[in-house]
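Handout, page 2. Input:
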Amino acid sequence: MAQFLEIKAAHPSRLLFYRMGDFYELFFGDAITAAEALGIVLTKRGKHLGEDIPMCGVPVVRADEYLLKLIAAGFRVAVCEQMEDPAAARKRGSKAVVHRDVVRLVTPGTLTEESLLDAKARNYLTAVFAGPAPAGAAGAGGRRGDAGQIALASLDISTGELEVGEVARADFAGEIVRLGASEVIASDVVLADADIARGVALARCATTPVPAATFDSLAGERQLKAQLGVADLAAFGGFSRRELAAIGALLKYVELTQIGRLPCLRPPRRSGSSAHMLIDAPTRASLELTRSTSGDRKSSLLAAIDHTVTGPGARELAARLSSPLCDVAAINARLDALAFLHDSETLREDLRGTLRHTPDLARAMSRLALQRGGPRDLASIRDSLAAAQSCAELLRAASGGMGLAGDLPGTLARIAERLGACDAGLQPLLSRALIDDPPHLKRDGGFVREGHSADLDAARTLRDDSRKVMAALEARYVQETGIKSLKVRHNNILGYYVEVPAGAARPLTAAPLDATFRHRQTMAGAMRFTTRELVETEGRIVSAADRALTLEQDIFVELAAAIATQERALSEVAGALAELDCEAALAELAVEEGYTRPILDDSTAFEIVGGRHPVVEQALRSSQERAQFIDNDCALGGPELAGDAAGAHEAFRPARLWLVTGPNMAGKSTFLRQNALIAVLAQMGAFVPARSARIGIVDRLFSRVGAADDLARGRSTFMVEMVETAGILNQATPRSLVILDEIGRGTATYDGLSIAWAVVEYLHEVSKCRALFATHYHELTALAGRLSEVASVTMEVREWKDEIVFLHKVRPGAADRSYGIQVGKLAGLPGAVTKRATEVLRLLEKTGGKPATGAALIEDLPLFAAATASGQPGDARDDAEARAGPSPVEAALAALNPDELTPKGALEALYRLKELSRQAE
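Output:
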């Protein structure tokens, strides 16, 4: 307990997993907390200051699953291991305590165990630095940021992936959501900042306060140079002092939690507003890029397009989707590689078949670097290198044997070169040393292949075949002495000994054999001897198991050291494998779903022919009805699009802003979202669900679709809508794409219409961006005639037998009505409600719905309750009408006999009925 309390005092804010043999045990308050969180039994062990000590424990072999529960519940854990063998402790005295110490601090952003991580998602630990830049000039190639910039440095400790950049304060929430950080570290002051706290809350990541002093730019620069093994950071683009400060805090925190050990860092990847399409947090949520509205991966765009066959490939795909590019050349380089694999079916299938069984090289390397790896991690590196070699050979063959750069696109040629970056001798070494399927834990042994080490083979032979060893020794002694009755025997008192009959023992007691055979015991009919060789062999047999295990541990260390010398090259191989899987998967997606290559340029055009929603299309296909998705065109842009409109878009008037009208359920929101998703797919370097697409680079993507409140921060649904709309209007540029749906519907009709009207004008006159604006305010369509770059389109519907049929097709023009009551019928509203709503609607349409007609409306339209005072709602009026007798129109209809009417008489009857109907109104 004294040892436990001493170690616990050094980690007061963490649950202490205290190793006791085959269990991790927790004591005192830790035990009470953990037992409740894990749902395990709380017991007691001994006394402290006269009171029972609460205790609970978990088996070491199942510790990972309990750690995952605790981390998910928001706890931090300090893992305390036994640092020596209990036998060594006993040598110091019978009451000596086994030496223990904390070997790691487990937090959400520092997980490395395979069982604790999602194979398809990065696990970023992100350091955030806000405020003025630290003192000191920027380093070589460095940059000075603006005062409002926030620096972020993110590290996936499980792979060594490092990403660094600066963002404006207004973009912080979108950036932290893009990164998908599981843990954010920052000073208390920064974490208390309202904008940063909001972004962290939207990203749903854990926060850990760290001392402000750890954000030291000079220390960060020094540590990064040491980790990358360079004397100057200019080769990586240079870093601002803010970025270096964030890097310094990040590496210091990793060093603290890993007790001095650091993973192998990959070269830093730059991020920032100029490199990627900026997508704010509400837009990411509304478009469901990587997570659906329920928070899971299913039904998201990522799930719909993920055809990867490896975890690293899935992580690369998610990274590309979260960070679409803005560089036309970089995008086209990806599209060239994708097109090559799209057209090379055999190559694509062979690559995917090879990659399918490739382990996660990056995470295996990281575990080994942090001294947390096992034999399977060695095997993962061996198998990954073999797969890399096979893929390189496939690419080489595809280049026509002209070398890696033959006919391959540049991206694939570079991938092929990186696949061969590692020393060619490492994979054969691992193959010779390891069995095909090694155990998970190195302490179990049995992972080194027979024949790799002569000493190990000898130890195993002694351990497993001691009888054969002694039989061979016995045969040699018989040959050397000539005594055929000589036997090598064993008992628990003497151990191994040589026994010969008493009458045949004389040669062993005389020279020269007496120098080899020493007398040990005389029996009634036999004599027993021993030899130095026998004693040594016995000793080796007794310790053979321990020696074999020790030799295997030594071989493990040697192999891990050989891997450590190739860390940089192995990182290149790991990255190349991930990229190759991602490219092949996107090519497979394009083939299966019929996607086409988009055209990207620097214009402001946005021209989609036959566009489809990738997620909805797949959902329809997998539904029981197996319905076909109805594609639609979209033609947004300025003068550069006008000349092309005579082709596929002759029905539409090209404009920067489309006003989209039509009833609910007709597909407006789907149409809006699909165009945003097509832009994201195109700029991430993927083919798109359309017959053709030409897209001028989108620098910022905004989507305001749907309604939600933020009650915790005192914001109503309408307030949230206005805040998000304000953000769009303040940040949208002429190169942006804006998706707005039902702006102004959360307040009074005329207020909402006025706001929507003003927003459309602002987007047209000030922002000058490309926009799709869906609305039920049909009055807004008048703007299409007043504003030169506004056009009206509508979702086509048909009426049939007082019902509507949704055609889900966009056509020029404006909707004449919203069909809300018909949609209510489809939703299952009671018939009395829809009937009453129809009456109210007719009267409103007759009066124009003006406020001044309110009194008249009340007079003409009795209360619902009064109209349905008797019977069920909707039946009362019918009963009253039945008691009053038939109406004049009904009486006239009853008097007609169609069989007796001439054509002229039928026309006269029809005119008479029409007149009676007019009089009744």
